[in-house]
Structures are given as structure tokens and as C-alpha cells.
Amino acid sequence: MTMDQKALQKEKERLQEVMQLLVKQIDLLEQTTGIRGHEVRELKTHFWDDMSVNLTNDTETMETFSSIQQEARLLSEREKSYRLAAERLQMLVRLEQSPYFGRIDFVEEGEAEAEAEAEQIYIGLASLMNEDGSRFYIYDWRAPISSMFYDDSPGPASYQPPEGARIAGEMTLKRQYVIREGELQHVFDTDLTIGDSLLQQALSDSSSEQMKSIVATIQREQNQMIRNDQVDVFIVQGGAGSGKTSAALQRVAYLLYKHRNRMTADQIVLFSPNPLFSQYVSHVLPELGEANMRQMIFQELTEEALGRFYTVEDLYDQTERLYTSRNADWKQAQKTAIQWKASAAYFEWLDQYIRSCAEQAGMIFRPVTFRGRVLITAEQMTEAYYGFPSDTPIDRKNVLMKKWLHKQLDQAEKEQRKKKWVQDAMEWVDDEVYQRVYQRVQKKGGFQAESFDDDQQVRKELKKWIVNSKFRKLRAFVDRDRFLDDEAMFLQFLRQRPPFWEDENEIDLLRWNEMTEESCRLIGEGRLLAEDASPYLYMMEGLRGFSRVDGSIHYVLIDEAQDYTPFQYAYIRHRFPRAKLTILGDIHQGIYAHNESADSFHTVPKWLHAQRDERLSFKMSYRSTAPILDFAQSLLPEEQRSIPFDRSGPMPVLIEAHDEDEAFDALQALVREQVNSNRIGIICKTMENSRELYQKLQQAAIQIGVEPEDIQLVVKDTQRLSGRMVVLPAYLSKGIEFESVVLWQVDGGHYDETDRRLFYMAATRAMHQLQMIYAKSAGLPSWWNEIDSDLYTRAEGRSTEDRSSSFEGRNDENQSSSRTAFDKRGDRVE
Ligand SMILES: Nc1ncnc2c1ncn2[C@@H]1O[C@H](COP(=O)(O)OP(=O)(O)OP(=O)(O)O)[C@@H](O)[C@H]1O
Predict the structure, then answer these.
(1) CATH domain 626-821 topology
(2) Is 705 annotated as a binding residue?
């Protein structure tokens, strides 16, 4: 909607006014931070100057201590006030670039007649008031009143204030701004929730190494997720590119604002799939003027508990293990086992095992041994454990058990003091120890007792000291729960015959036994398969009553949640007992063996013990152009597809080469053409394929016209995207995006029947351009004919010489019109 000149002039004037106010406030704050910074430095430099340290007696020591405390308190207050001023200054500098991006005019119900003009609410990254605090020039986007900007179009509108009933009224205007470096570049009124044109612009920008903030264009459904703070467990299902991660980060910023007086960023945890993703999203919150939340990768929790004892396989290595398995039968059996080990039934079975071990029988203990002899036998421990009332909670039993063990050790210590080895050891005690023991006895007043011989008293203490120091290891063995034989208990569990087996699983028991023995053998060698790791962790913690607790965390967000198993959800619940959880995922991106057939998040609230849960489904998708999303989604059930945001672009292209050599020629020509304008993601199916292709590209770098370092291979530990051409396996491309994607080797030899989801996920990494290459000799995947041929174009892979002409015009947006040029088999019909 165009604006009249008068209104535009007014906007320009207002922007001037705001800019002047900002300059003034920045000046002031610069002075304040300068002064406060100086004060802090001075305080630190002269901290001890006026302090008289006197430790001669208790009273003086107390006084010294109290004046140190006072000085330290003063320093910490000054530091805090300096930090707050510096943060505000940073925010004002940010506002100086772009003070606001939206405006709504709102007339509160009941005020319409009395007030001639509606209140103008300008919305930006942070609030700005005049000096005396009487007028808001800018409202923070997270303020309750700002929610109308995202939720409503002009007309009746309402918002929920922090307290009291909802406030309703009439929105008489909605306006959006693009302000760069303090200059008004674009302003327009809109009838929509958020004007399409700004979103168009945001989405057509090139990709970057970092995810961007979406604050100016948050969509209504995303805003619902960002601001919902009522429920324990909030589950968001959204297709690829629907903005789950983007909205999740905005949500963190919102929560930090809403609970700013009682929560800090390190009390929020985001679970992300890998370091590359963690780094990719790590700039959004600082861009919004907030500190980053904590990021965790579930594997780190497994490593924390089990890494000392085992090499723990992760999901990526598990996936490669399956991809590279040459025996189809064995591979299928492994997949079935992996699925079974991530199922609800298996979870319940293990849960039951933990309970029955704790309450009835099955606990296995490690005996406590000393100098090659058993001090406390496993049988004695079993007897003690089951001697506690059977309804004692597990964590309590664990505490009681430790107490009992320490008592046994006390007794054993006494007995050991009489042994000959102690006598012998006394001969070797060095002077320093002797002196210490001597002084201790003296302090206790031992030498005043008339009936004792001094030397005897010291010798007695020395014996105590010797045995006690040797027993320290045993005490630690008890305190660290090492008396529980987790490994034996897990093996015992694995070797049980699974319930419901024959009815529900295609895998026969013989095979199952073989695989169980394989798991057990590996455990014996100190290696834990990924499918065993989470159950093991859950059992281990369960047997201790989940004592590892992080009660300070208020919110946990789990991204790529479709990849989590019941064990992981349940563990997260126990680990962060006070946290509200936000679960974000797309069941169609379940690409791992354990979730390739999962079709909902239905049971998640159960694992999370949710009192109240809510679900939200994102309908729209933003990352990929409509032709790319339509193409990729054709493999999904129709009713579960997202609506692509209306953004055109070239049709996906399938390049058909005769053989692998020609396919590589085609790839070289294609990247040569694009590499200077776009970052290209070349997605292979496996790590093995990626390494192989990376080597070939390195050798061909000069020919392609790039430096070898422009080509990057992403491995599971990669921290950041740095190359202009990035080669990576599909499973590591989760959550990230590229302007242009090439799917390499999309033939039936590489993508089998179960790889539809992997293909969908990989294809939806493309923002603007998607090309796929395969060698005809290998054929297309079995499911390819389910894709409507109108949704992509085919091109012949040609020899290197005529390659450049062959790909000319591929960037052309009109290419979509060429789709009728090929029929379903790829023959020309014109
Ligand atoms: N409201 C919005 N305004 C501007 N850009 C948006 C908006 N929502 C999403 N996007 C953009 O769409 C792209 C995809 O967003 P995001 O990665 O958050 O989606 P996702 O649902 O997590 O995707 P996936 O499940 O495929 O990883 C990003 O480039 C993001 O900036």
C-alpha cells in the first residue's frame, strides 16, 4: 500500500527525532560507562590499600574478613552497574542502525470516542524512552502490546497484559519499515499479519554462515510458539524450513525478556544435533542483544556418564555402520534391533527391569576388596540392599546403601589397624607425616591424659592415619557408586528374552541372540553401540534414582526432536526436573534407523511426565522456493505437506549422466558456473561418498577455477562452514541451508527404498536452487516414479567440452517454464 507524501514526511521527521534522541542517550551512556569503568578499575587497583589486615586474634580476623567482604560487595555492585550500562550502550548503538521495523496504531476499547488519535506504537529490538521516562518512542518487540503486530491485521485486535484481563480494541494502522544505518529505505502500510514484501526480501537474501534473526517478520503461527509460556511441554511439528529453529531462538529471547528479573541465559538449554549446528545458530541471540543460552548435544551427556568406561558410538557412526553394511539380511536385522531398542515397549521393559531389580532381585554388586582380599562380599551387599524396606525409593536406597558400606569400612578400618602390614608401614612413615600426627595428638590434649604413654598415643594415631589413607580409594569407590556393577546388570538385561517378541517383530530370536551377543562382546571390549548407549545411561542413572540433577534450568528446548528416543526424553526430564520443555521437530526428517518409520510425537509427553502439554503445527514453509519445496514434498503424504511461501525460482534439475565419470564432469561444470555467486552445498549420501568426492574435487580444483581451500569437507566435528563449496553427508546437513544444493549420486544404488526421508531432508536444504546428478547406468531409486515429472526438469550430462553451453541459463528464473519440454521418461515432447 503506498503512503501519501504527508505521512511519509511525518515518518521521516519522527525518525530524525528518534535518531537525535539516540545520539543524545548514547553520548550520555558513553560518559556513564567511562566513569563506571574507571571506578571499577580504581577499586580493583586499590582494593587492599585502605584495608588493614589483622589476623592476630578472632575478633581482629572477623573484622578484617568483614571489611574485605564489604569492599568486595562494593566492587561487585559497581561491576554490575558498569555491565548494565555497557549492555544498554551496545543496544542503543544497534538501535542507531535500525531503531524500529514496525508500527501499529491502536485504540483501546472504550477510549475510541474520547480519544481523537490512536496510540502509535513503534516496535524495535529494544525499548526507548525519553529522558524523563514519560514517553515510549520504541517498544521492545517482546512487550505484551507488541504481540498485536505479529498476531493481528488492521481491525479488531487484542493483547494480554502481564496482569489482568485481555485488552481489546481496534488496530487502525499497521506499518512496516526498512531502516538501514539510520536511513529510512522503505516504508509501507499493510493489511496482512506481516507484510509479504518484507518477508520476500528477507527470504531472497543470500544464505550466510550464520542463522539470522527473524524478528521483523515473525509469522503469526511462529509468534504463538514464541510467546507460549503456560505449558510444561510444548510440541511443535513443522515441515522442513518452517522456521522451527528460528522461532525457537526468538522464543529464548522472549523468555529472557519476560523473566529478566529471575532468569539468565545460562538457565536455558538448547539441545542441538552437532557442533556445526550449534555454531550456526549461535549468533542469533547476540544479534538480538541477549546472551546465548547453553547448548548441549545429547551425546555429551552420554559421554559424561559413560565416556570414562567405553568408547560410545554416536548416531552418525551408527548410520555409517548401516550404510556400509554389505550383508542385506544382517543390515535389516540390525535396523530392526535398533528400532526395537528405541521403542516404547523396550523403554517400559527396561524401566520395569530397574524397578524389579531395586525392589525384588537382580541387583549385582562389586565386592569391596583390599590388599587382594574381599572386605565386603557381593552377597553381603545384596543382603543389606534387600534388607531395606522394599518400598524405599531407589535414590533413598542408594543413600542407605552408601551409609551401610561406610559403616562396614569403619569396622574394617579398625580391624586393619591391628594387621602386620600397618606395623611395617609405620617404619616407613616420613618425618612430615609423623610431625603432623604428633601435633594432632598434642592439639587433642592426648599427652595430658595421665594413663597414656605419649609414644603409644602417637603410634595409635599413626596407625589410624596409615589405614585411613589407604582406605580413601575404597571410600571413593562407595561415594562414586562404583559398588553397583552397571555393566553386569546391563548385560543381564540384554540377555533376557524380550517380551512380546514373537508377535511384533520380523526378526527371529536366533538373529536377536546373535546381535545381543555382539552388543555384549563389544561392551566387553569397552565399546558401546549407539542403540545401547541411551538405554545403558538410563539404567545406570535409574539404579541411582537419577541423582544427576540440574535444578537451575528453567527451560529446555530440543531441536530436531524427531531423532530422540524415549530413553533420551526420559533422561532429560530427570536431569532437568524443573524445566519447561519445548520440543521442535519434523517427523518426516526422521532419517535414522530408529525413527525412519515414526509418524508422530504422540507419546513424547508421556516420557516427559507432562502435567500439561500443548501441540502446534506449523503450516507454512519458508526456506526453499515453491518449486523446490513442491518437488521435495511430493514424497510425503499429501495431507502432511507444508504450504510453500510464495517465492518463485528455477525448477529442480535432474542431470542424467551416462556413467560416474560423466556425472563428475557434469558436477564440475555446474559448480564452475555457480561457485562465484553462491555457496554450494554438495550433499552425498554417506561420509564415505563425501570423502571420495571431496578428494576428486580437490584434484580438480584448478580446473573448476577454485582454490583447494575453497572446498570444504564437513565431518561430524566440524565447527563452522568456511568453504564456498561444501561437501557433506546428508545426515550432517540437518538444520542448515545453502543457496544452492547439489545432490550427488541420487541413483538407486545409493538411495534405497528406506531413503525417501533422507532425500526429502537433503533436498530441502536448498533455498534457491536444487540440482541432482546421477549416472543412468545405476538407475533411479525405486520411489522416484512417485515424483510428478512436472515438478522438475531433466538435463543430459554431457562431455566437458560442451558443458558450459549445456548449463547456460540454469540460473534463469524462467526456467520453470521449460518444464513441459520433457515427459515423464525425460524424452522431449516438443
Ligand atoms: N518469519 C520468518 N521471517 C524470515 N525468515 C524466516 C521466517 N521463518 C523462517 N525463516 C527462514 O526460513 C529458513 C528456515 O528456517 P529454520 O531453519 O528455522 O526452519 P526449520 O523449521 O528449523 O527447518 P528444518 O527443520 O528444515 O531444519 C531460515 O533461512 C529462516 O531464516
Answers:
(1) Rossmann fold (3.40.50)
(2) no
The C-alpha cell that represents 593 in the structure block? 534407523
815-824 long-range Cβ contacts below 8 angstroms, 24+ apart: 815/650, 815/651, 816/627, 816/648, 816/649, 816/650, 816/651, 818/651, 818/793, 819/651, 819/790, 819/791, 819/792, 819/793, 820/790, 821/793, 822/789, 822/793, 822/794, 823/789, 824/785, 824/789
More confident residue, 220 or 828: 220
Residue for cell digits 527371529?
Answer: 508
Domain ranges of the chain: 5-204, 218-307+548-621, 368-479, 626-821
Distance 582 CA to ligand 1 centre (A): 17
296 contacts 261 by C-beta, under 8 angstroms: no
The correct answer on CATH 1.10.20.10 for the domain covering 218-307+548-621 is no
Give the C-alpha separation, 784 to 792, whole Å: 12
Is the CB of 667 inside a 6 Å radius of any atom of ligand 1?
Answer: no
Residue 599 to residues 17, 169, 621, Cα–Cα distance (Å): 55, 42, 19
Residue pLDDT, tens place only, 627-668: 999 999 999 999 999 999 988 899 999 999 999 999 999 999
Q: Whose CA is nearest to atom 31 of ligand 1?
A: 212
pTM of structure: 0.87
Which of 222, 246, 633, 736 to mutate for ligand 1's pocket (most ligand atoms within 8 Å of CB)? 246
> What ipTM is given for this predicted complex?
0.99
| Residue 238 marked as a ligand binder | yes
